[in-house]
Design a protein that fits this description.
about 350 residues; alpha/beta; seven-stranded mixed beta sheet; six-stranded parallel beta sheet; about 25% strand; globular
């Protein structure tokens, strides 16, 4: 089968290969024919080494498709079922799951260390234990979440990560208060979803911050009340909050520099939500006095900060009701053979989300 493979960390281009085989099928597993995948910035971060991932590997962790085959002991799925790929399934038995913090379950991370593809040259990993830039993937049954027939594969793929992460940051982690002021730093697919989440919660002012003009224009269409470049943020803070700072600031870039900017633009007693996935050697510096004196809450948001399955269901319900726009997030479409074009669209910021048609 075909798949896009990164041979070494640091390479900028993927190679489309036809000799890849999805492996690991057996009890508790399912084989999925991938129909659509979304390109998330985390895929780029894994390719350049910001996020740890063994190579060679097949990127992609947003995906949707249909079940081809189910292994023994799989009772809730059958061939033909439409599913979204969940890269961080919960086991239901670990301490995090028992506390109700299923987004902190480490089961999915353990999958990332086991190859789920192979070719004549040896083993090939799947990013985050999945690898959706492939025609087929074998995953744990818990990674395949059934979706209703009326949810298109491209929409479902986005729900698998970016939309759930951004919406959840506003709805679950921050629990944005109605009438509040919000700033979102970084307005790709995840940031725009955070904008939509803040709008749903009734935020009075939502300032979108991004260096790319087209993304700022998009943010206004999705519910931002103002869109500015990073250089204009100080003026926006003065205009919207009288210089006090925003009630909520979402950092959706994953860099210490932007996290520091987000902290400085959060009002005293306000909330900074860290959504972007950054590098392990990139340290955010805060002094002990400001931590104590400003009493700002710093809330990391992992995968939307809530139960993933419930978040999927909520997103589908909101989409059906027309309360969130998911189709509008897909600004570009490319076949798998043109995956490197999609990477360029992500790097330049011209795309919110590119759908990979497989």
């Amino acid at each position: 089968m075909r798949a896009a493979v990164l041979h070494e960390i640091g390479q900028e281009k993927l190679e489309i290969l036809d000799d890849i085989e999805a492996v690991g099928f057996g009890p508790g597993k399912v084989r999925v024919r991938v129909r659509a995948a979304g390109l998330c910035h985390s895929d780029l971060s894994a390719m350049n080494g910001v996020l740890p991932q063994p190579a060679p590997f097949v990127p992609g962790h947003e995906g949707a498709g249909e079940i081809l085959e189910v292994g023994e002991n799989v009772t809730r799925l059958k061939p033909g079922d439409r599913v979204v790929i969940c890269w961080l399934p919960s086991c239901g038995a670990c301490p995090a799951c028992k506390r109700g913090q299923t987004e902190l379950c480490l089961t999915g991370f353990m999958n990332a260390g086991t190859p789920n593809f192979k070719r004549s040259g040896g083993d090939v990993f799947g990013f985050a234990g999945t690898g959706t830039f492939a025609e087929e993937v074998v995953v744990d049954a818990g990674c395949a979440v059934p979706i209703p027939d009326d949810v298109p594969f491209d929409i479902a793929a986005l729900i698998g990560c970016g939309v759930t992460t951004g919406l959840g940051a506003a709805l679950n982690t921050a629990d944005v208060e109605a009438g509040s002021s919000v700033a979102v730093i970084g307005c790709g697919g995840v940031g725009i979803s955070a904008v939509q989440g803040a709008r749903l919660k009734g935020a009075a002012e939502i300032v979108a911050v991004d260096p790319v003009a087209s993304r700022r224009e998009s943010a206004l269409k999705f519910g931002a009340t103002k869109a500015v470049s990073p250089e204009e943020l100080a003026d926006a803070k003065q205009q919207v909050t009288g210089g006090e700072g925003f009630d909520y600031v979402f950092e959706v870039v994953g860099r210490s520099a932007t996290a520091r900017t987000a902290y400085e633009n959060t009002r005293r007693g306000g909330t900074l939500v860290v959504v972007g996935a950054g590098a392990m050697d990139d340290f955010l510096q805060l002094n002990m006095f400001e931590l104590f004196f400003d009493e700002k809450r710093i809330l990391p948001s992992m995968y939307g900060g809530g139960d993933v399955l419930s978040s999927y269901e909520r997103t589908i319900a909101l989409w059906r009701a027309g309360r969130v726009d998911l189709a509008g997030l897909i600004t570009h479409r490319v076949p798998l053979a043109e995956i490197n074009e999609a990477l360029d669209q992500m790097r330049t910021g011209t795309a919110l989300r590119t759908c990979i048609e497989i």
